[in-house]
Amino acid sequence: MSDNAKAKGRKRSIMIPLLLVLTVAACSVAGYAVWRMMKKPADATETTAKQEPPAAPVFFALDTFTVNLVNADNDPDRVLYVGFTLRLPDEETRRRMNDYLPEIRSRLLLLLSRQNASMLVSEQGKQDLITQIKQVLAPPLVKGQPPQGVNDVLFTAFILR
């Protein structure tokens, strides 16, 4: 054989293992990338599952209120019958409100008796009433206590006559 033929044979014998090594490396990288992509959503699911569930809501149900409403005709027959439940931030606020329930009811009765019948008919009037209830309950019940936090007011009964 000539020197040229021997050189070609050596090149081929070196090229085949080199191509084999490159192919195995490329397949390995591709396989690893696919495995990481498939693994990522499972990791995200585990992270969400490990998070603590939200705290149970704290509700404070109040007895229904019946009050005469203010109106332009001074008609004494305009009456509001309303019941609601307060959503509170924590159990401590609930305990404090329960301890001072007469004060809470007094504030709410004064607020409700100042309402205008024509305003409460609309959805916006009811939303404004919710805002006013939160504001009237916010100040501390007794000097030295923290302000009351009311997260939401949920109507359980609402009759306007």
Automatic annotation (TrEMBL):
Controls the rotational direction of flagella during chemotaxis. GO terms for cellular component: bacterial-type flagellum basal body; plasma membrane. It is a single-pass membrane protein. PANTHER family: FLAGELLAR PROTEIN FLIL. One of its GO terms (biological process) is bacterial-type flagellum-dependent swarming motility. Its main location: membrane. This is Flagellar protein FliL. Keywords: Cell inner membrane, Cell membrane, Cell projection, Chemotaxis, Cilium, Flagellar rotation, Flagellum, Membrane, Transmembrane, Transmembrane helix. Belongs to the FliL family. It comes from the Bacteria. It is found in: Cell inner membrane; Cell membrane. NCBIfam families: PRK07021.1. It comes from Winslowiella iniecta. InterPro entries: FliL.
